[in-house]
Amino acid sequence: MEEYFARTSDEHGYETCVEHLSMTAAFSGGFSRTFGQLEEGMLAGLFHDAGKYSKAFQKRIRDPEHVAKVDHSTAGAAKTGEHGHLYAAMAIAGHHAGLPSFGTRGDTVQDSSLQGRIKRAREHSDIINCAAMGEQFDFASLSSIKADTTPRDIYMMMMRIRMIFSALVDGDRLDAEFFTEDNMSREEWELLHEIKDFFGAASLAEQQAPSTDKLLRSAEMVYQKLHDKAQTAIAHLASIAENRADALFTKSDKTLLDEKRCKILKQCLEEGDSSGLERGIYTLTAPTGSGKTNASITFALEHARTHGLDRVIYVIPYTSIIDQTVAVFEKEFGEEAVLPHYAEAPYHLAEEDDLNPTDVRRNLASENWNAPIVVTTAVQFFESLYSNKTSRCRKLHNITNSVIVFDEAQTLPPQHLKPCLKAILELVDHYRCTAVLCTATQPELLPVLRELRNEPNYEVREITAMSDDEIMQFERTTITFTGHTTLQELAEEMASQPQVLCVVNTRKEAQGLYQLLKQESVGEDGLYCLTTLHCAYDRKRLLGEIRARLAASKPCRVVSTSLIEAGVDVDFPVAYREEAGLDSILQTAGRCNREGRRPKEKSIVTVFSTDGPIPPFIQQNLDALAHVKKKGFENVNEPAAVHAYFMYLLNLRQGGDRRLRNVADPLDRANILRLHSLEGDNRRQMPFDTIDQRFHMIDSLTVPVYVPVNGEARDLCDRLMNGEHNRMLFRRLGKYAVQIWPKHRDTLLKAGKIVDVDSGSTDASYVLQDSQAYSSEFGLKLEVSPGEGLWI
495 Cβ partners below 8 Å, 6+ apart? Predict the structure, then answer.
C-alpha cells in the first residue's frame, strides 16, 4: 500500500494522513457537537487536509527543501462543497490563512474567494483529486451524511461558519501539537491519548482508517468527556461561591451596607439556582459598592451548574481594571480555575524559561479558552467573533454553552453597538449561552435588541429586581451642581480637603489643575495626576500608592481623567466632577464614600463647568445630561433620571429627530451587519476578510510612544531600537506605551523628543529620546516650548 503522510517530526517521524485526519475529525466534531453540528464539524476535520493525498504534497513532505509548497486545503473544500456542506467547505478553505469570502460565480481564478480558488484548482486537477483518500476512508458512507439545509439568514450562516472554523482550527492544532510535542501541560492531553487509543495507535500508523460510525462515536466521546469535566469544575466552583455567600450571610458584625449587599447576593444565588430561569439575556443592575463583581460571578456559576453550561466568561471593558477582577477571582477560586486573557497578562510577558507550571497551562489555554472561568476584554471578545483569523477564531467554539458576563455594559462603543448586541443575541439564540449585562448604570439597550430581533415585545429580565426605593438605599453621596468655576478656584477648594478626587474631561486640564495645586503649597506628598499620558506601568503604580494613602488616612489629592471611573476600586470622602454624561458623573460618585462609612450628606460630589473647550466625543452625553436637568429631577441619581438620560442619549446616537435615510447607521458605522447580508454594494457573498478589516472596537488613530521609565523599559526600548521586532517584545513594551494623536507625534518628532524606529511602516513605533519630556509625576509632555524644535 502506498504511504500517505500528513506531517513529519525529527523526534516522532511521520504521521500518517489517516491518523491526522481521524484525530482532527474526532475533536472538530466533538467541539461542534456543543452547538448541534457534530457531523458537519467531523466532516470538516476529516477533509481539511484531503489535499495531502496528492502526489505533489507527498513529494513535498519527503523533500521540502526542493519541492515547492502545495495547496492542500482547496481539495477538501471542493469535496465537501460538492455535497452541500457549505459550513465545512468554508472552514476547510480558511484553516491555514483565514476565512476567505465565499465569492460569486462570476469570480475568476485571480480572486482569493472560495469560488476563485476552486476555479483555479480545477485547472490543476491533482490539487482537488481525493481519489487516494477514498481508498482509505469509506466515501460511500460519508457521502450519506446529509448537509444542514435549514433556512437561515446570511448572518446566522456566517456565524455558523466561524464556529465550525473554530472547531476545525482547534482540532487541527491540538493534533499537530500532540504529535510533535505530546505536551502534558495541555488540558486536552489525556483526552488526546484516549481518542488515539480508541482508534488504535497501530491501526492509524498502518493507515487503517476508522469506519464512519467509529469517527462519529469518537466525536461524541470528545464532547462528552470535555462536558463532564467542565461540569465537575463548575460544580466545584459554584460550591465555593455558595460557601463564601453563607459566610457573608452569617457574619455577625455586618454593617448596614453589608446587609444590603447580602440581599443582592442572595437574589443572585436564588436566580442562578432556579431551573425556571432559562438561558437568555439578563440584566444585573447593582449600584456601585453593592458587591456587583461577587454577585455576578456567583449568579454565573450557579446558573452554569443549573443548566449544564461549561464555563463563565467575564468580559471587562478596560485593561486598566482587569488585574483587579482577576485578583478577586483568583483569591476566591484559585489560580487553576481562572484564565486571564489579555495582552499584558503576566504569562504573556514572561520569557519561556521563566514560566511556572500555571503560566504554561494558562499560555496554552489562552489559545482556545478551555478553562472554567475566563476573564478577558471586550476588544478580545468581540473582535474575535468578527475575525477571520485562525489564531483569533480558534477559541470561538468554547464561547458556546457558557455564561457570559459583560461588566460595565454601558461602555459598549456606540459606533459598534448593533454588531455587539447582534453577536450577543446570536450566541444566546443558537449557541446555548446566557448573557448578563452587568452595570450600576444600565444603558437603554432594549429598543435596539427589539429592532435586531424584529420583536416589538421582546423583554430582558432583571436578575436583581429592586424597587426605586431599594436602589436609592445604596445612595452614599450627595451630588450638587455648582455651575461655572475656574481651575484656580477649584485648586483652592481642593487644597482645603486632605483627601479629594477631581475628574476632568481632558488631559490638558488635568495637568493644569495639578500644577495649580502644587502652587497652592500642597506639595508633591500625596498629590497625584492620573491621565492616559502616563504609561500603564506608572498608572498601576500610582493607583497602588493612592489606595495605600487612602487606607492609612494620609493626605491624598488626585486629579484624573475619566480613566479612574469605571471599576477602579478607590474610596474618597469627597469628589469633584467636571460636567460630562450622567453615567460618568455617577461613576465618579462611585469612587466617593464607596464603603458607606460616612454620612451621605457629608460625602459631596460637586459637578462643575469650566471655560475649557468641550471635547466633541462627550457633546451628546452633555446634551443628554442637559435634558435630564431640564426634566427637573430632584436627584439625578434616581432610576427615573438615569432611564431618561440613556433613552435621550440613544435617540441622539441614532441621529435624533433629524435622522436621515440611506446613510451609515450611527450604531453600526462600519456597516458590519450590512456586510453580513447581500444588500447594496456587497457584491461578494460572505466577505469575512473585509469584516475582519473593518471591525475594531476601538476606532483610534493614535500611535504608541514607548517611554524608558525603568531598567526593564530601557532594555526593551534598546532592543526595539536595534531592530528587534516580535510579538513578545511588543507585548512587554505595552505597559510602557503612551498613546498620542498624530499631530502630537509630529510635534514631538520635529522637536527631536521622540524617534521613529520603524520609519515607513504602517505600524510605526516611537521611542522617547528626551527623558525630560516624560515624568512619572504627570506623564508625557505634549507641549513643546518655542525654540525647542530642530532646524536643519
Answer: 517, 520, 521, 522, 557
d(CA 292, CA 385): 26
Which pLDDT score is estimated for 336?
Answer: 94
**H/E stretch holding 767:** strand 766-768
What residues pair up with 223 in beta bridges, in sequence order? none
User: Are the beta carbons of 738 and 707 closer than 8 angstroms?
Assistant: yes
Classify residue 362 by burial, with Cβ atoms within 10 Å: 0-12, 13-18, 19+.
Answer: buried
pTM (2 decimals)? Answer: 0.92
Please, which residues bridge with residue 704 across strands? 739
Tell me the per-residue pLDDT of 226-236, one tens digit each, with 9 for 90 and over: 999 999 999 99
Q: Residue 188 and residue 226: Cα distance in Å, rounded?
A: 8
Smallest CA-to-CA distance from 98 within 30, 168, 50, 180 is with 168
Q: Residue type at 511?
A: Q
Exposed/middle/buried for residue 698 (C-beta within 10 Å: 0-12, 13-18, 19+): exposed
With cell 463564601, the residue in question is 244
Is residue 235 a contact partner of residue 307, using CB atoms and an 8 Å limit? no
Contact 479, 595 (CB under 8 A): no
Residues 752 and 761 sit within 8 Å (Cβ to Cβ): no
Give the pLDDT score at 760. Answer: 47
Hey, which residues does 738 pair with through a beta bridge? 705
Residues 6+ apart with CB under 8 A from 608: 481, 482, 483, 484, 485, 490, 576, 577, 578, 579
C-alpha cell, 573: 470622602
Write the burial class of residue 521 (CB in 10 Å: 0-12 exposed, 13-18 middle, 19+ buried): exposed
The sheet with strand 338-341 has its strands ordered as 338-341, 373-377, 311-316, 402-407, 434-439, 281-285, 461-462
Give the pLDDT mean for 277-302.
Answer: 93
Q: What is the DSSP letter of 709?
A: -
Summarised one tens digit per residue, pLDDT across range 71-123 is: 899 999 999 998 999 999 999 999 999 999 998 888 888 888 888 888 888 88
CA dist 60 → 50, 57, 92, 291 (Å): 15, 5, 20, 60
CA angle (130, 131, 133) in 5-degree steps:
70
Distance from C-alpha of 503 to C-alpha of 591, rounded to nearest angstrom: 11
* Average pLDDT over every residue of 217-245: 98
When the pLDDT of each residue in the chain is averaged and rounded to a whole number, the result is 90
